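Here is one chain, start to finish.
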Amino acid sequence: MTYNFCINDFEGPLDLLLHLIRSSKMDIYDINIESITKQYLDIINSCVDNSVDANSEYLVMAAELIHLKSRLLIKKDETLDEDEEYEFNSEEDLRNKLLEYEHVKELTGTFHQLEEKRSEIFTKLPSDLSEYRSENTGMIKGEVELDDLINAFELFLSRQKLNKPLNTKIAKKELSVHERTTQIRNLLKKVKKCEFTEIFDVLTKPYVVVTFLSILEMSKNDELLITQDENFGKIMLEMK
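Its structure:
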């Protein structure tokens, strides 16, 4: 048999042995030790660099195979003590080692696939945007931002839909942001502090929208102090 590869093509002596067994179409549970040992030694001898430093682990395996082959040549009815200097004292020892290596190699292949998939995903650490915040805006007081107000507003609307009566009659009344802002300002001067949802005392769509826009306008003008003691807690409004 001609070999067009050398031991550098393999990850170690067990990898080489496993390749030889597969190439010879042997059953790993019924290895022909004599044939495998011969093929293994042929590859070792065919390598250009046969120095001990370069091929030490392969030479150790060669010694193991020769030792195992010599034990098998002795009559099977003779009982032999295990030689502690060698790892393989029976065909079963070699088979178990190869099966263990094959299992680890399969797992390694799976990990390589997972690593390749992970390399296609790029992540970015959160950036500190505090330098872009304006010191004059009321939105950052108490760590309350525009998104918090919008989320609270959406939750308020969804709750009101459940409380809405089946039959309603709405009398249209025009209300400007300026007028509603004045009303909110007067209310907060009177009560000092109130919950965000308490501002919406009338539940018609135009009134609710104008009220929310008025709160945003007052916050933009730095008239309001908006605070929240904890995540998802009540949002409180008060005049500065």
